[in-house]
Amino acid sequence: MSHSPTSVAPHLRRLLELLAAGAPAEELGTVAAEARRAGAGAQDLAEVERAAEAALRVRDTLRQHRRREAELTALFDTAGDLAALRDLDAVLHSIVRRARMLLGTDTAYLTLADEEAGDTYMRVTDGSVSELFQTLRLQMGEGLGGLVAQTARPYASPDYRTDGRFLHTGSIDAGVLDEGLVAILGVPLLLGSASGGQVIGALFAADRTPRTFAPEEVALLCSLADHAAIAIDTAKAMADARIALAELAEANAVIREHSAAMQRAAESHDRLTDLVLRGGDVSDVAAAVAGLLKGDVAVHDGSGWPLTAVGGGAFTRGADDPGGAAEAAALVAAAETSRAAAHAVFRDGRWVCAVLAGQELLGCLVLYGRPELDDPDRRLFERSSVVTSLLLLLRRSVAETENRVRGDLVTDLLTAPDRDPAGLVARGHRLGIDLDRPHFLLVARTGDAARERLADAAVQYLFGCGGVSAVHEGAVVLLLPSAGPGPGEAARAAASQLGRLAGAEVTVAGSGPAAGPRAIADAHAEGVRCLKAMHVLGRTGGGACAAELGFVGVLLGDDHDVDGFVAATLGPLLEYDAQRGTHLVRTLRAYFGCGGSLTRAKEELHVHVNTVVQRLDRIQALLGPDWNTPEQTLELQLALRLHLLSGS
Q1: In whole angstroms, what is the distance from residue 622 CA to residue 641 CA?
Q2: Which one, 316, 358, 534, 562, has the greatest CB density within 10 A?
Q3: Cis, peptide link before residue 158, omega less than 30° from 0
Q4: Cα separation, 34 vs 46, whole angstroms
Q5: 581: left (phi over 0), alpha (psi -120 to 50) or beta
Q6: Which residue blocks in 342-450 are alpha helix, DSSP H?
Q7: pTM score over 0.90
Q8: Are the CB atoms for 191 and 225 separated by under 8 Å?
Q9: Distance (Å, whole) CA 428 – CA 435
Q10: pLDDT, tens digit, for every residue of 438-451?
Q11: What number is the average pLDDT over the span 154-171?
Q12: With 80 as the cut, is the pLDDT of residue 78 above it?
């Protein structure tokens, strides 16, 4: 008898309806019986039974998902309670209540260690009815709870009264019997890692009938226990903080007793201020601080790189040093900590104090060779950072003034490069800029909110590299001596650093190298076109040059490098055909020409369709798995057409 889809359809639909309604397993199981009573054939009946089994599996999966969702919700709620911790008792009661609810047990309870008595005591219970049980105390190793506290491991017993793994005592057994508990699961409350952490108590879930706890139930109770441990530790930390505040009040009294030492610090500060007023530099302040504090001193900029150093122990490695970047990052992190604390901090064997202008991090002052600083010396070190900030602000102000003068040159260079080329070059020489030397031209944009910050960031970025910046037509233009692999790499480096300095996403287009007023102006025009194309293509927040934008770059670039575009797009196929005498380029042209039809392509090429498939597989291996996407297809077809027109 043949299988008829219509004969089983009503039963399958019935299964889906029951599944959607959340029917119990028994109702799902009756569908096969209904089909049998309806006279379904053997084959149809087997199909319905298989469908019923699948429905049961789906139902179990949905139940597991709902249960997991409830568990995660409880954990998130518990985390929220911790974030708003006000009353430790309320949080612990909430955790114990959730443990009882999620595990579906008759009772749940939490015990804590009593360090003075050397035992554990009942802290919170939920669902308990026995006063004797609620006042139990357990010695380490006694009962299930004592073993959990002693070993820092979870334990479960389906029937505690008959379980011989635990040390039974009269008081514990009496309390358990009075509460009527049978099945018990206990997990430790740990501070720190499981291997080396401190057990401060235990969390339990218990039933008054025999029960085997599943591994996922153990894991859930462990998660809740972790939250309870955090709550207890947080409460202790808050108490410690109150003690620390009291100690700080005592420290203030000690400070008042050391007024003479503070006077020395004030006099030292006056000495540093006088040094600045007499025209001293950052290096002079560093030398003075090193002499006053008998240590090695360095001053670093906001990126962590050294500006000046006094003494052999100071960090002086530059950006070309492989370990320099990590050291610079560590100093920036320490400076951020100092800014947040409003004091010098000791990190990695050195004292670090943030150099600030308001809340802006200008750099940091670093002291080496003095692991211990008393309060007067620390105050002197912190006062020195204020003097250093004045010098760095003055230094930046001078740089900004110079950049404004140079920026006028850039503006004239971009608006009227042919009016007086020789005069522009001469002005550049007077300002320290050789316009006849090859330069990269970068055009940078950001959102309206960060536009002013971007201009300031450009000044900081170019400081010390011989470059110049200016705001022109709503964008920041940077002219810097060409170095490195090319304008695309220069644009990417600038986008990253300018974004960090401006605190916003910055898009940078690069062009060049160009030498001379007219070439620089043309490079700017290409950079503007490239920047617009990057926004259209969704490549904001990064850096690129026209040559890196595919066929769009060919259209935007002044040199229209068609051969370079063809080589960049079809290069792997051209090289493969040349080396092996194959026809991958011809196959790709035929494939596109036939609208992607394998049948028509094989007829045009006079080969078997399998040959076309094999060649397309090879093309994918050479060009990448996304060669047939709309964007790649457009570039490939344009490159094929240009290659054909070139007669290659």
Answers
A1: 20
A2: 534
A3: no
A4: 13
A5: left
A6: 375-415, 421-430
A7: no
A8: no
A9: 6
A10: 999 999 999 888 88
A11: 92
A12: no
